[in-house]
Every structure is written in C-alpha cells, then in structure tokens.
Design brief:
Layout lengths: L2 H7 L14 H12 L11 E5 L2 H16 L33 E7 L5 H18 L3 E5 L2 H4 L3 H9 L7 E9 L20
Antiparallel strand pairs: 1-2, 2-4, 3-4
Helix pairs in contact: 2-4
This protein binds flavin mononucleotide (FMN).
C-alpha cells in the first residue's frame, strides 16, 4: 500500500484530547490544506472560524450534545461508536459534545445546491492534514441547529460571519490523549464494479 493511502486509512475520530494547544505553524498548515479543497465552480465562498476560547467551545459543545438528544431518551440512541474514543452516544456522562478539544473549527458556506459538498471537501482535507501532522480530529454535525440558538447567533455575529452564511459542520482539533484507537473495520460490498 502506498504510504499516503496507509496514512488515510489510519485517520480515526479522536474524542479524548490533551489540554495542550496546537502550535501556530501546525494550525496554519492544517488550515491551508482546508483552503485548497475544491469548491463548486471555484466559488471559494466558505469561511472557517477558528475558536480557541475554552469557555465558548464548552458552551457550543454542550449545545451540540443537547441537540443530539433533544426530545429523546439518550439510551434509545445508544451506539457502539468507539470503545477507544467514546462518543456522547457511547458514554452519556460526557457532557461536552466537543470533548474538550482545544481548537474548534466551524465551517460556513453559501447556502444552496453545493453548500454541504463544499464544506465536506474542506473538512476532509483538514482532518487528513491534521492526521499527517500528528493532530487528532473529529467531525461534528448538528452545527446548523447549534448556531440557530440564541448563543450560537450571538457568537456568529461577534465573529463577523455574514448573516447569509450556513454553518455546516464543526471540526475538533487537538493532540490525542491515550493510545491510537483501533481501526474500525469497513463493511464489505460497498464498492459496486460495473
Ligand atoms: C456527518 C458526520 C457527522 C458526525 N457527527 C459526529 C458527532 O456529532 N459526534 C461525534 O463524536 N462524532 C461524529 N462523527 C464522527 C463519526 O462518528 C466517525 O467518523 C465514525 O464513527 C467513523 O469512525 P472513524 O472516523 O474513526 O473512521 C461524525 C462524522 C460525520 C461524517
């Protein structure tokens, strides 16, 4: 296997982070990889907000967890997502849906046909670049719901994000705490050769 492919296959969602912050050079390289992602028609409309404010990330992470279980019994959503790096669906005692990550990104794009595609391109570039540089990452959904709350709206205004932009996803970045997680086996039969 080519070493790059091997690297891609050893990226895993990381949810246990050391408190130490990313150094600026590493963060800058990771963000450059995100900016070089393709965009529909080369629109380059996306914005990546980088938040390293502990209090803000905790509040947004708590809202993200709340949105996951809103109106549901957490036990009914129980999953076996990761034993090594448990998610909020594996362990209900985790109250921060951002898992204490020291750096949290929010990707905003222009609403429309390709909004989610553009954001996902950036997200994957960022997660792979992070992994190549020894930084753990995790993709987090429900971002639109989090930023539709009063606190979320207040923050995006404070950050100067244009009102017409759509918050698509959060990405957590930080150095992994604990051993490298085991790879999750991939299901068979997902490639259809015709
Ligand atoms: C669209 C999307 C939403 C996700 N949302 C969450 C989330 O809210 N919380 C979380 O802990 N992980 C989330 N993940 C990470 C997945 O749980 C993880 O990628 C999956 O379990 C596969 O594990 P791996 O990334 O280690 O291969 C999300 C991933 C994707 C692609």
């Amino acid at each position: 296997m080519h070493e790059l492919i091997e690297k891609i296959c050893t990226r895993h969602a990381i949810r246990r982070f050391q408190p130490r912050q990313l150094d600026e050079g590493t963060l800058s390289e990771i963000l450059t990889a995100g900016l070089y992602a393709p965009s529909a028609g080369n629109n380059q409309y996306s914005r990546i907000v980088v938040c390293q404010d502990k209090e803000v990330n905790l509040k947004l992470g708590q809202l993200s967890r709340y949105m996951m279980f809103k109106g549901k019994d957490p036990a009914s959503t129980a999953h076996s997502i990761s034993a090594d790096q448990p998610s909020i669906q594996d362990d209900f005692t985790i109250l921060d849906g951002f898992y204490g990550a020291p750096t949290v990104l929010t990707i905003f794009t222009r609403p429309g046909q390709y909004a989610h595609d553009d954001a996902a391109m950036i997200a994957e570039n960022i997660m792979l670049a992070a992994h190549f540089l020894g930084v753990g990452s995790c993709y987090i959904g429900r971002t639109e719901e989090v930023f539709a709350t009063g606190y979320g709206m207040e923050k995006r205004k404070e950050w100067g994000v244009p009102d017409d932009m759509l918050p698509v996803c959060n990405l957590l970045l930080g150095y992994r705490d604990g051993p490298e997680p085991h790879a999750k086996p991939r299901k068979e039969g997902r490639v259809i050769r015709v």
